[in-house]
Specification:
Largest sheet: 8 strands, parallel, barrel
GO biological process, one term: protoporphyrinogen IX biosynthetic process
Strand content: 15-25%
Helix content: 25-40%
Keywords: Heme biosynthesis, Lyase, Magnesium, Metal-binding, Porphyrin biosynthesis
Oligomer: single chain
Order of helices and strands: HEEEHEHEHEHEHHEHEHHEH
CATH class: Alpha Beta
Distance between the termini: 47 Å
Structural class: alpha/beta
CATH architecture: Alpha-Beta Barrel
Number of helices: 11
CATH superfamily: Aldolase class I
Number of strands: 10
Bound molecules: ligand PBG
GO molecular function: porphobilinogen synthase activity; zinc ion binding
Protein name: Delta-aminolevulinic acid dehydratase
Family: Belongs to the ALAD family.
Length: about 325
């Protein structure tokens, strides 16, 4: 046998037993870190499975209450509500209607869980517009940023009136966080907090979500969502949101943007969230269904990666299931 220099430093020593590994783990995922996104659809009387997101459904008003109660039971941090109206128009009128599906669902869920969960709402027009854009269009067909802001302000007040705890402006219009903050404050609702989509990229990984909200997007979102090539721009967007009054900033998508998440975490002094989006969910589900990866460890590894990269909060379609796995 060849003589070797035997190593003195042996990192493997701390990996020998589960107890040792557990003791020195740098990060952990807990149910409280997780937020479940849910879809509520108008005019259906049974939940409708979303084929592009196996295991996820469009809820009825009744079934979303049950899902919320289960989520509270599982001890997760919150719910993010998305509305799927049966009628869409050019200006997304359903978003402002107090009897619109999202506003009704907010009130239903708050009535069900009270403050046991943080109830959040997607504050965006794309689910409500016939053209599928996050804002309204001007006569030339371009997104009208400032007219859209006026609608976001009204939408925030509608959500607040329905009892929401936290709104999530996700349309990537310039100035949206400031406008929403001042609308809420002006209406005496400084208690409603803002989860700002700080860095939100124009991503191909949103694909499965489009079926979930029945979106018929014409064109793409590249004039408002960010270019995947840019990380500094993501940090700048997040800093602007902090200046405008964001309580939490989010990076979205998740897995392909963990570097941006880390940079944002280092740049701000408020909690940072990550959105483990539909495409990331469906890739794992599809591979697992084919027997190509081991599903539960893949889910837990994904969530751990978000925490390691700096996420304080993780929006994930696996929230309730993961909370149960973590308790085991
Ligand atoms: C916009 C919005 C989108 C998602 C959440 N909010 C779609 C988009 O920006 O194109 C995507 C979420 C997911 O893919 O899981 N209201």
């Amino acid at each position: 046998m060849t003589e070797i220099d035997r190593p003195v430093i042996r990192p493997r020593r701390l990996r020998q037993t589960p107890a040792l590994r557990r003791m020195v783990a740098e990060t952990s995922v807990e149910p409280r870190h997780l937020v479940l996104p849910v879809f509520v659809r108008e005019g259906i009387d049974a939940p409708v499975p979303i084929s592009s997101m196996p295991g996820q459904v469009q809820h009825t008003r009744d079934s979303v209450r049950k899902a919320a109660a289960e989520a509270a039971e599982a001890g997760i941090g919150g719910l993010m509500l998305f509305g799927v109206p049966s009628v869409k128009d050019a200006v997304g009128s359903g978003a402002l209607d107090p009897d619109g599906i999202l506003n009704l669902a907010i009130a239903d869920v708050v009535a069900e869980v009270g403050t046991a969960l943080t109830v959040m709402s997607d504050l965006c027009l794309d689910e409500f517009t016939s053209h599928g854009h996050c804002g309204v269009l001007d006569e030339t067909g371009r997104i009208d940023n400032d007219r859209t802001l006026e609608l976001y302000a009204e939408m925030a007040l509608a959500h607040a009136a329905a009892g929401v705890h936290m709104v999530g402006p996700s349309g990537m219009m310039d100035g949206q966080v400031g406008v929403v903050r001042s609308a809420l404050d002006g209406a005496g609702r400084s208690d409603v907090s803002i989860l700002a989509y700080g860095a939100k990229y124009a991503s191909a990984f949103y694909g499965p979500f489009r079926e979930a909200v029945g979106s018929s997007l014409e064109g793409d979102r590249r004039t408002y969502q960010q270019d995947p090539a840019n990380a500094l721009e993501g940090v700048r967007e997040a800093l602007l949101d902090v200046e405008q009054g964001a309580d939490i900033v989010m990076v979205k998508p998740g897995l392909p943007y963990l570097d941006v998440l880390r940079q944002v975490k280092d740049a701000v002094d408020i909690p940072v969230a990550a959105y483990n989006i539909s495409g990331e969910y469906s890739m794992v589900e599809a591979a697992a269904a084919n027997g190509w990866i081991d599903r539960e460890p893949a889910i837990l590894e994904t969530l751990t990666a978000f925490r390691r990269a700096g996420a304080d909060v993780i929006l994930t379609y696996w929230a309730v299931e993961a909370a149960r796995l973590l308790r085991r």
